[in-house]
Amino acid sequence: MTSSANEKPLIEFQEGPPPAELQIVDLVIGDGPEAVPHGVVDVHYVGVEFDTGEEFDSSWDRGQSANFPLDRLIPGWQEGIPGMRVGGRRQLTVPPELAYGPAGAGHQLSGKTLVFVIDLLGVG
């Protein structure tokens, strides 16, 4: 895992069974304003599948951060980002129920546990 908030993180493969509950790990503690429930966040992120370690999305690869109202994101982000401070980097391991739902729910990532590393760049 790289820990500099100025470069794309590499997410290491995790051994063992996926967690049944949301796992939140602060990799870098920020010192800026705090993200709040129902707020707007500006983030850089990388997402991988827990089981395979395969990357499925990265704002870094698009060359620009993503700006979202938290209410429009998966429940794992709605629960896992509030309390984070600008300048911080957090890893969320999100079970299917808090991501895209159980297998067969209609999304290509349905039924999968997902791991995200999120850099909080700003709040609104």
UniProtKB/TrEMBL annotation:
<feature type="domain" description="PPIase FKBP-type">
    <location>
        <begin position="38"/>
        <end position="124"/>
    </location>
</feature>
<comment type="similarity">
    <text>Belongs to the FKBP-type PPIase family.</text>
</comment>
<protein>
    <recommendedName>
        <fullName>Peptidyl-prolyl cis-trans isomerase</fullName>
        <ecNumber>5.2.1.8</ecNumber>
    </recommendedName>
</protein>
<keyword id="KW-0697">Rotamase</keyword>
<dbReference type="InterPro" id="IPR001179">
    <property type="entry name" value="PPIase_FKBP_dom"/>
</dbReference>
<dbReference type="Pfam" id="PF00254">
    <property type="entry name" value="FKBP_C"/>
</dbReference>
<dbReference type="GO" id="GO:0003755">
    <property type="term" value="F:peptidyl-prolyl cis-trans isomerase activity"/>
</dbReference>
<keyword id="KW-0413">Isomerase</keyword>
<dbReference type="InterPro" id="IPR046357">
    <property type="entry name" value="PPIase_dom_sf"/>
</dbReference>
